[in-house]
Design a protein that fits this description.
single chain, alpha/beta, 10-stranded mixed sheet
Length: about 400
């Protein structure tokens, strides 16, 4: 067959460790034989980030603004141990955090559902997509240990020098701890717009939950912004698409989610989204079976796997030992990016290819051929455990039958 032609490049962000190894095998076996790939390549491996003083991360985000679609490999966010291991000049920030801030995006994570890997919550028969507002809150907090008696205050000083004060607590002699959080209206609005836009795109109901009955200013501001945007800009679009927007308190939402059938988007503040995305992925089977897409209200999309660089398997690989690393989420990052590129450029063949590659991947698992992590949890009575490369080659064999 002739290779599928592309008209506009997508941005390709390479990464680290075992996922970098998978990235090359995946491209060689599942992408390049079938697509005349146009990509603008950026090496976000830790060594190159160090070499470029992390300018490569900024360049890749700017390229995503230019072309609209990116696919990203998992990358290392260095700690002290990684600084020593890679002899880094400094402890670089998370590439995901940098890209997310530059694109002003919201992270949507959804489990990949496949027969034989059953949900631990028996009523869930459709994926639950987590929309996480990955900005501010506890991840950008300011904290103090209080060692004795005294008054803690929340103080805001305006540009004109005026002050507003609220007492947080009068501490006794045994002291305690105090924490300050913040968020900004523009980021909350972008979060809400991304959620409404994505719900319309995939035609799924949107839930939003927080705790506005307790947090009557902080959380209530989130609730108000969502409601105002919905009423003024999205209500008619939702009604026309046959989907709904639903707000409830987070404790009520958790109870409803556990008894639901899934099939909706659940929008959450930063910490709540962090926690619930891990719960959803674990309940549906594995973090290696969860997609992640960064959606910007400005029309930018960045696709990646939800997991990290699989460090333990990489060290085995370096020793020449066999690995059985799950590549499904990375494959779905590529299919997501290729499908979106096809949608934006009007190339149906590219969209169809992405659909077929996803089906070939799921068919491979459902036939009993899978990586070690899935073989441990599958209900398939006779799973065949394949190594990293053989699993991808088994997918290629199924894909070729469809093309």
């Amino acid at each position: 067959m002739d290779k599928i032609k592309m008209t506009t490049p997508l941005v390709e962000m390479d990464g680290d460790e075992m996922t970098r190894i998978i990235w090359k095998i995946l491209k060689d076996e599942l992408i390049l034989p079938f697509i005349d790939l146009k990509s603008e390549y950026y090496d976000l491996g830790l060594e190159n980030r160090d070499k470029t003083d992390d300018q490569v991360t900024i360049d890749s985000a700017n390229a995503t603004k230019k072309y609209g679609v990116a696919v990203k490999c998992a990358t290392i966010t260095p700690n002290a141990a990684r600084m020593d291991e890679y002899h880094l000049k400094k402890m670089y920030k998370s590439p995901n955090g940098t890209i997310r801030a530059m694109l002003d995006g919201t992270v949507f994570r959804a489990p990949i559902v496949v027969k034989g890997i059953e949900s631990n919550v028996k009523t869930w028969d459709a994926p639950i997509v987590i929309a996480r507002h990955a900005y501010g809150d506890v991840y950008k907090d300011t904290e103090m240990k209080i060692e004795g008696a005294g008054k803690a205050e929340l103080v805001f000083t305006g540009k004109d020098g005026s002050e507003s004060r609220e007492t947080i607590f009068d501490f006794g002699e045994d002291g305690g701890v105090v924490q300050g959080l913040y968020n900004v209206r523009s980021s909350i609005e972008s979060f809400a717009r991304s959620c409404f836009t994505y719900a319309l795109e995939i035609k799924k109901d949107l839930w939003f939950s927080t705790k506005d009955t307790i947090s009557k200013k902080y959380d209530h501001t989130f609730k108000d912004i969502f409601q105002d945007l919905y009423d003024n800009e999205y209500k008619e679009k939702f009604e026309k698409a046959g989907i709904t927007y639903f707000y409830t308190l987070i404790d009520d939402a958790v109870a409803r989610v556990m008894k639901s059938h899934g099939g909706f988007i659940w929008a959450l503040k930063n910490y709540d989204g962090d926690v619930m995305s891990d719960m959803i992925s674990s309940a549906f089977g594995s973090l290696a079976m969860m997609t992640s897409v960064l959606v910007s209200p400005h029309g930018y999309y960045e696709y990646e796997a939800a997991h990290g660089t699989v460090q333990r398997h990489y060290y085995k690989y370096l020793k020449g030992e066999e690995t059985s690393t799950n590549s499904v989420a990375t494959i779905f990052a590529w299919t997501g990016a290729l499908r979106k590129r096809g949608e934006l450029d009007g190339i149906k063949e590219l969209q169809d290819f992405a659909d077929k590659l996803e089906k070939a991947t799921l068919d491979t698992i459902e036939s009993g051929k899978m990586t070690g992590d899935l073989a441990l949890i599958t209900t398939n009575p006779n799973p065949v455990k394949l190594n990293t490369e053989d699993f991808i080659k088994a997918i290629r064999a199924n894909l070729e039958k469809m093309l």
